[in-house]
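Comment thread on ticket #2218

A.B. wrote:
> Attaching the input chain for the structure job we discussed in standup.
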Amino acid sequence: MFELIYHSVANENLQESDITDILNVARNFNSQNDITGCLLYHNERFIQILEGAEEVIRQLYASIEDDPRHNSVILVNMGEKAERMFDSWSMAFHKLGQGESAALDKFLFVNNFKLFSDLVEKPSDAVRLFFQLAKQLLKD
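C.D. wrote:
> Ran it. Output below, let me know if you need it in another format.
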């Protein structure tokens, strides 16, 4: 099993419909190619973890780097791991809201995210990095 983690900055003109398109394409591609993972979006920043066959993940990451809807794509970590962490998620996603519901939305998401991270058995260094970056993203 191969894992890749990156983060990036959304372009200023990114629309809600763009995110919907990203998710629809990702979920379709991922389910056809046995890819799992999680995508977080907050304050115009993305962080994503991808799991699957190395060749497929590397090709997917190359297309992600070329996607004009974001910039400053930084590879955080990649490497082999024993098993999937997001085995039932073709692409989990959460966008923290804005306005009055943002605080509650963020509170619930952070608590659920922390609970999930506590339940992960034998986390790899890459998974730890993912959660550290996600935690930083959630603080902003």
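A.B. wrote:
> Thanks. Noting for the ticket: The mean pLDDT is 77.
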